[in-house]
Amino acid sequence: MFTIEHDFDATVVTLVDEGSVHLQEDVIVNAFEDCVTVEQLDPHTDRLQKITLSMAQLRDLSAALNLPEGVYRLRRNED
Q: Stretch 24-39: mean pLDDT, rounded?
């Protein structure tokens, strides 16, 4: 399950891990104009862990999810 909320400066997607087996904490994705952050509570330390991705890193991640194993470099459109 997931939710989508549109805030003033970001779109927030929350991913809820549903299931009968070991569940992970919710993942919160904040999409800003210039970056995306991914947050998840670490239950062992009770601290919020945060990763920040640039838009280029996000494009690379999106492409990587649909490619086989290997090393790639995406070509950027230069207009």
A: 96
